[in-house]
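Re: weekly structure request thread

Next one in the queue (77 aa):
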Amino acid sequence: MKKVFIFLIRFYQKGISPYKKPCCKYYPTCSNYAIQAIERFGAFKGFFLALFRILRCNPFSRGGYDPVPEKKDRRRS
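Done, posted below.
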């Protein structure tokens, strides 16, 4: 499932995005954020992280640097 999501995002990046006006307020862009989130957290959690990021991208947000959160280590020292 992870590979399917990443394939669809890459298709968007290469086949659709070049024909649109650049409009992402965030760095990394929402599509790059989605790929990083899916690679780091898996398809399910990565998808929802990307969805919430896209919902934050609105006329009232300031934008700026917004990296994918680090994956927390569940092991205790």
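The longest strand covers residues 26-27. The chain has one domain: 2-12+22-65.
Next request, please.
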